[in-house]
Amino acid sequence: HRYMKSVKECFKDQGKEVIMFDRHVPNTRGSSHAHIQVLPVSKEAAEKAATLFMDEGDKVGLNFIKVPEDV
Question: Which of 17, 20, 42, 50 is the most buried (most CB within 10 A)?
């Protein structure tokens, strides 16, 4: 949480909003691979992002879960 807050503050100084998403891929050996993607975008793009991610994900069978800001 502290890391994500710091990244948001960094881009806020540049007038950008931040979209973050992660990818978790379990493997056959019982471990997993995960990474976080950070996309700095304009405020206008950020306002449309959640709906766009959900709609496009539905088209290809991906489920996105929006995490509340306070988590």
Answer: 17
